[in-house]
């Protein structure tokens, strides 16, 4: 996924030339190959990814993946419901941390902290 403004991929923005191998695998394998497989829609891949990140306690990665899920067709209502549902399977603290991120990301622009 290349940013149209900078021409940089997500991996390049995150790590530049610091971790070239991780940049390569993120950009070329994960997003260019795995995310493009036709067996699941990008929306479904996003929902699965959000669930996996929440269950694994990788809340920091949700900053990107919740927004990406919206870009891929998941609604805010669906994502909030998924997090609520996952509270019972993955743990209440993980769901609370994830919902905090979702609330911040989904807040109207005039209510976001600067």
Could you explain the architecture of this structure?
This protein has 114 residues and is an all-alpha fold. It has two domains: 1-36, no CATH class; 40-111, AhpD-like (Up-down Bundle), CATH 1.20.1290. Helix content is 67%, strand content 0%. The protein has six helices and no strands. Helix 3 (42-56) packs parallel to helix 5 (76-90) and helix 5 packs antiparallel against helix 6 (92-106). The chain is globular, with a radius of gyration of 15 Å. The model has no long low-confidence stretch (mean pLDDT 91).
Essential attributes:
AhpD-like; mainly alpha; 2 domains; 114 residues; 6 helices; globular
By CATH, the superfamily of the largest domain comes out as AhpD-like
The CATH topology assignment of the largest domain is: AhpD-like
Low-confidence stretches: none
How many discrete domains? 2
- The SSE string, one letter per element, is HHHHHH
Overall radius of gyration: 15 Å
Offer a concise description of the structure:
With 114 residues, the protein is mainly alpha-helical. 67% of the residues lie in helices and 0% in strands.
